[in-house]
Every structure is written in C-alpha cells, then in structure tokens.
C-alpha cells in the first residue's frame, strides 16, 4: 500500500481538530489546550504539550505531522525590512519579509508589524518584472507552511505580528483552498487571532477566483496587481492578461467591491518607459475611481537578469500627482527593502543560483 503522507496538525481547522479529538474519545477541552500550544505558546513538538497525557502526545505524533521551517538566511536589520529565507521539508526554498511600522499601506490605520508571506514555491504566471516567475513553478504551499512563516518570524523577531500581506512568492488565488484554510486559522480567536481587516491577499488578476473570494464571508482585504492601465501594457508584462483581460478583471473587481465593505487596492509597479507615462496615470485614475480603489505605487526593484529599470524620482512623483489631482487616494512606496532585494522571490533566486554554482564547481 502506498505510504500516505500525514496531514500536518496546523493544516486542520479548529472544527476539524475538534472532530478528530472526538473520534479519539478525548474530552472537548483538549481542543483549547492543543490550539493554545500550537498558536499561543507556539511549541514545536507534541512532546512539549505537557498538560496532555503522555499517551495522547504519542498518539498525535503518530497521526499528524508537525513540520518546521528551517531558517536558512536572514537579511536586513532590526529597524529596517528583514527578509527570511526558509527551507521546507522537501528542500524547496521560500521567503517571508518582515516590514516594521510604516504609515498605512493597506489597512486604514498605521500598519504595525507586517509580514509578507509566500503561498507557492515559485510562480507559474511569469510576470516579466518578477523574480518569482523567473524559475517557474514548483508546488503549492500547504496551509501549515503558510502559517509557519508567521510563527517562525515571530519567534525570530520576538514580537507579535499584527498585519499579514499575501504578497510574497506565488499567486495566492491559484492556491485558493490552502490559502483560505490558512486564513481561517490565522483569523480564528483560537488560532492566531488576527482580524480579517489586517489580512490582505494580492492577486495578479485571476478574475474567476476574485469572484470566488468575494463570496467568502471573511472581510479580508484584496490588492490587485494592475501594473498597467491598458491591455496593451499589461499584455507586455503580465501573461495572465491574455487569459483575463482588463475588462474581465475590472468587472470581477466590481463584483468584489459590491460584496465587501473594504476598499480594494491597486498595486502598480512603476517601470521606466513601460507603464509610467501620463496616459497610463490618467487611465489608472479612471479605473480607481470606478472602483473607489486606493492606489499603491511601487518603484520597480532591480532583478538581476531582467532588463527593466525604475523611473526617476521626478517621474514617480509626477505619476503620483496625476492620480492625486484626480482625487485618488494614492501612495508612493518608499525605498524600504530595496537594498536587501525585498521584492518577491529575489532572495530565493540568488540563493538558488549560488547553490547551483557551488554544485557545478
Ligand atoms: N502573485 C501575486 C502576489 C505576489 S507578487 C501578485 O502578483 O499580486 C506581489 C507583489 O510583488 C507585486 O504586486 C509587486 O508589488 C511585487 N513585486 C514583484 N516584482 C517586483 C519588482 N521587481 N519590483 C518591485 N516589486 C515587485
Ligand atoms: Fe507570480 Fe505575482 Fe510574480 Fe506575477 S508578480 S510572477 S503573479 S508572484
């Protein structure tokens, strides 16, 4: 018989855990004890759950996996953006970025300790400016691997994280079920207890999944990576636009805002000579007005091996001023993290390249 991989205990919703424990004939209060160990005290093995009977700890260890992310590298310092590179159980690499206090990027109030997490190993969508797309797609992350990024970074940083953005490596909406499972655990009071309004999912424009997300009851935030205000520009840099063009994407966004209380955010990387012209700014303002969306402008981060560059500071500010003159709530992201390759997938790409060099010498 094939060896079926065990489910990690942190991939279970609280209700599923309750059900499993009931099947094992355990009293109901065990659910609270175990979820406290997992998400409040954040232990790393069943053995450490000292208020559970010894046999139960052994039984849980037989039934469930309890994997850990292995920290490979940390870049950055305490008071700037810090980037964490992790190895998964199967030697794949993923990364998470911790962004310290900064004025509101996605939330309404000032964002405090924000973590940017990955949802896949690599990415299949191949945007032309993005390091994550460069090496192709390997696999989806499981819910526990998504959650463990938060736990591991809290452990390293010694401080509670209160804001989550799904903007690391991968396309979250292409791993819909695992991402939603992780979000429910992150949000649950018996899980990490982080409010839905402090969780932002970013997508490159998977229109049908945006509609599916709109139908979910949780009031999480949505960021749409637009990066171009016409099909012409998006087609040049984002292959997904050939599947779901701008019209299709914007009507999925209409559907989303009709179903949710929060405003959505358009992410817009500014790339010199590609999408930074006044015409794009004017059209972007139109799209944002139609959806009452906020706009977050991000100067392009250089990716080794890619031909693009960021526009001058003057151009960036001109672009911003066109949006603002049109009454759009727009921000221009500061340089945070540029020096440590904070854009998604960049650290992993470097490490993969270095490891390959080491293997070939
Ligand atoms: N796949 C999803 C979420 C991950 S990518 C999406 O595309 O929305 C999320 C963000 O990474 C992009 O919106 C962009 O903000 C950032 N990003 C990727 N490559 C970048 C680069 N070279 N410079 C600056 N930001 C980049
Ligand atoms: Fe994938 Fe997002 Fe990068 Fe595009 S920007 S390749 S969708 S991770």
* Spatial shape: elongated
**Average predicted confidence as pLDDT:** 90
What value does the Rg take, in angstroms? 21 Å
Order of helices and strands: HHHEEEEEHEHEHEHEHHHEHEHEH
Into which percent range does the helicity of residues fall?
Answer: 25-40%
Number of strands: 12
Task: Tell me what portion of residues adopts beta-strand conformation.
Answer: 15-25%
Spatial ordering of strands, largest sheet = 1-2-3-4-7-8-9-10-11-12
Q: Are any ligands bound, and if so which?
A: S-adenosyl-L-homocysteine, iron/sulfur cluster
Structural class: alpha/beta
The major β-sheet equals: 10 strands, mixed
The poorly predicted ranges are 337-341, 356-361
| Number of helical stretches of at least 4 residues | 13
Report how far apart the termini are. Answer: 41 Å
Structural account:
β2 (about 80-85) and β3 form a beta hairpin. This protein has helices at about 15-25, 30-40, 55-65, 130-135, 145-155, 175-185, 205-215, 230-235, 240-245, 245-260, 280-290, 315-325, 345-360; strands at about 70-75, 80-85, 95-100, 115, 120, 135-140, 165, 200-205, 220-225, 265-270, 295-300, 330. The protein contains 13 helices and twelve strands. The radius of gyration is 21 Å and the shape is elongated. The model is unreliable at about 335-340 and about 355-360 (pLDDT under 50). The structure holds S-adenosyl-L-homocysteine and iron/sulfur cluster.
